[in-house]
Amino acid sequence: MTTHSTSSVIARRTAGSASRRALWRIIAPLLLFVVLAWLALTVLAHGASPLPATGSPSVVFSVQAGPAFAAGLPAVSTPFTLTVLATNDTWGYLDPCG
Amino acid sequence: MARRATAIKRERANGVPLLLVDAGNSLTGDRPPASTTQGATTIEYMNLMGYDAMTLGQADLKLGREALAQRIAESDFALLSANAVFSGTTELIVPAYITRAMDGHQVAIVGLTGTWDPHPPADFAILDPLETVKKIIPEVAAQADIIIVLSEAGNPTDLKLVQAAPDIDLIVEGGQFQSFGRSSYDQATNTLFVHTDYPARGHAGRNLGKATVDFDAAGDIVAQSWQLIPLDPNMPDDPDMAQWRATK
């Protein structure tokens, strides 16, 4: 009885597994078709790939200005070299002394 | 002075971002015509050379209220001090600082007057430099990513300033003798100190200091060099300035 019952369960599971595989054989191509169709429609609608390429100049990042920027700092800075010419304690002399 | 003009013109000819500044005690002294014109000739030639800013030193304040007001009115450059006030008040004599946009950066120049003179000027009072920078530098840092202080306070005080206000990038020093002729660097605060001339009568105007400072995008110093340009007879007179000199 136990052996028979076990065999029946195994038989039912095998049958169920086979039917799920058959179902996926039908659904998977349909899903693929839907995804491809969506991509194709998006490309047609926007005239370009909806996926931003790495380093693409068309991708603009929005930067939230912090308090310092709000107070007047430039939003974009680059490295630079500054020359500072300095004098001190010249006493208003018109000619170098000593 | 005519030699200084030559050196300045040569540097400007390089076409790089440049500031021309003075760390104080330069308006007047013991010799004519600066002494007899109460610093008017000094303002004239500093205007002609295109100075950007100067801090008021204690010797400059000894011009007194009226003459100093005249010099301030005549100057095309910024006379600065964050701690020189009218006696009995907290009202500043001149602006504490200016800011200037340079190559995408905001550069602030702050003026600071020393307190070492045992005979302070009568019309004015000088607030404690250390307490002053504690208050003013955070305000400046909110508006500028590079902060230059023109300090007449002297090197011992300047070393304490950067501990109290590490946002300072560069201190152009004057007023006292400890560090003249050289540059030094505080690694902990990433601050550069430069000091051109020996601050005493009879030693004035021998050199022009040149600091070349590389800043990163955040406005922090990443490299620097310092050069004393001697204004000796090997430096020719600037013809325009020599002509102006001949009229004085």
Please provide a written account of the structure.
Chain A is mainly alpha-helical and 98 residues long. Chain A has a domain at 2-50. In chain A, 50% of the residues lie in helices and 8% in strands. Chain A contains 2 helices and 1 strand, in the order ααβ. The model of chain A is unreliable at 43-75 (pLDDT under 50). Chain B has 248 residues and is an alpha/beta fold. Chain B has a single domain (2-233), classed as Purple Acid Phosphatase, chain A, domain 2. In chain B, the strands form 4 sheets. Chain B has a 6-stranded mixed β-sheet with strand order 5-6-8-9-11-10, covered by helices on one side. In chain B, strands 1-2-3 form a 3-stranded parallel β-sheet, with helices on one face. In chain B, strands 4-7 form a two-stranded antiparallel ribbon. In chain B, strand 8, helix 6 and strand 9 form a beta-alpha-beta unit. The two termini of chain B are 12 Å apart. The model of chain B has no long low-confidence stretch (mean pLDDT 93). Chains A and B meet through strand 1 of A and helix 1, strand 1, helix 2, strand 5 and strand 6 of B.
Quick overview of this protein structure:
Chain A is mainly α and 98 residues long.
Which helices and strands occur, and which strands form pairs?
The complex is a heterodimer of chains A (98) and B (248).
Chain A: H1 2-46, H2 67-70, E1 80-87
Chain B: H1 2-12, E1 18-22, H2 40-49, E2 53-55, H3 58-61, H4 65-74, E3 78-80, E4 84-86, E5 97-102, E6 105-112, E7 124-126, H5 129-141, E8 146-151, H6 155-164, E9 170-173, E10 182-186, E11 191-195, E12 207-215, E13 221-230, H7 239-246
Parallel strand pairs in B: 1-2, 2-3, 6-8, 8-9, 9-11
Antiparallel strand pairs in B: 4-7, 5-6, 10-11, 12-13
